Amino acid sequence: MRCPHCQSETVVKNGTRRLHDNQIVQYYRCRRCAHTFNERTGTPMARLRTPSTVVEYALNSRSEGMGVRATGRVYHKSHATILRWEARLARQGEAWSPPAPEGSEVTLEGDELYPRVGENLPPL
Hints:
Structural class: alpha+beta
Strand order of the largest sheet: 1-2-3
Number of strands: 3
Order of helices and strands: EEEHHHH
Strand content: 5-15%
Number of helices: 4
Distance between the termini: 55 Å
Radius of gyration: 20 Å
């Protein structure tokens, strides 16, 4: 493991802490710069106050087609909070999706959702 502040490999374990959702997080200390950090540092889950399971379920609901406001109502969070979680995860996209090999083509497929509002009209 490398220190996120100085990129040094002289990192030692510095205890564990139990979060609000009873999840245990390992903390580390860099011997070179003396910064402390945990295993979530640099990930979309860093500095979140909401239990990670709630964030996971809410984002899964969104990916299955549930609306932003509906997701907020179900998980008792603001729709703005749900959108912030999505933006936070989107910024980490490069780390989650490796680049395509050179000279090859990549096809992305997306699922579309057409909510019905008002009259049920045929597609144009």
